[in-house]
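User: Show me a protein chain along with its predicted structure.
Assistant: Here is one chain, sequence first, then structure tokens.
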Amino acid sequence: MTDHVTTHQAEEDARNEQILIYVDGRIVPKAEARVSVYDSGFMLGDGVWEGLRLYNGRWAFLDEHMDRLFEAAKAIDLDIGMDRQGVISALIDTQNANGMTTDAHARLMVTRGVKVHPFQHPSLSRSGPTIVIIIEHSQPAIPRPVRLATVPHLRGLPMTQDPKLNSHSKLNCILACIAAEKAGADEALMLDVHGFVNTTNACNFFIVRKGQVWTSTGDYCMNGITRQKVIDLCRANDIPVFERNFSLVDTYGADEAFLTGTFGAQTPVGSIDGRQIGTGQLGPITTRLRALYKDLIARECA
């Protein structure tokens, strides 16, 4: 058994050493892709981002990703400096410059830009936003179901840092992941402020009990695009699905568990806190949802 995996584990691809990266209107070799040490994102985690996947020459669910990016920018009062079509054009120009057609993953990042002094106040960012687009050849290579450990770190209240915001400020999730690794797991299972099962440090979380698919209410987690697609697929294919509060007791007794995210789509969970979930392997409902999602992607990116 592989000792450790992550939900974003990909096959090694030597082509990624030669990729071209978009930085503020220029597409440059990887070795030349740099931002200032005064950049708001580097200095304070002040920015928003999107992860997108390329299938058969098309970016899956592009409209939903653009909606989320621009809503997040508005929420933090960040002017992206270009309209929606401008961002899409930058993404496609970067894709074309790299000659990529499928099995690629983009990280599109927008920060408040370079500061005039190394301090917090947003008014110190005066030169406009920093926009970076990294696209890598990326094929998921997760060799076994992931192991999760429950951690004390919470995905919390919207008046602190709203977990629905796809922010560059990820330290809380990184600390959760570190805690899980220290406990011998791959990644972290995080609870909400009421003690109900919520999400992982990197993905949305689902369980299957007696043929029913359960996920959190969505009040305290990133409302992922893949998460919503799985919910929609369940509803369209007569698979009972519930967005509800549930506990670790419910989770330990589940027949299956899986994670959702743009990169891995549906990733099976083998154990939580040392307790095997179901058979510890990919289950039948997760298998069915994977097939339905694959069909959805084929239609979306035809």
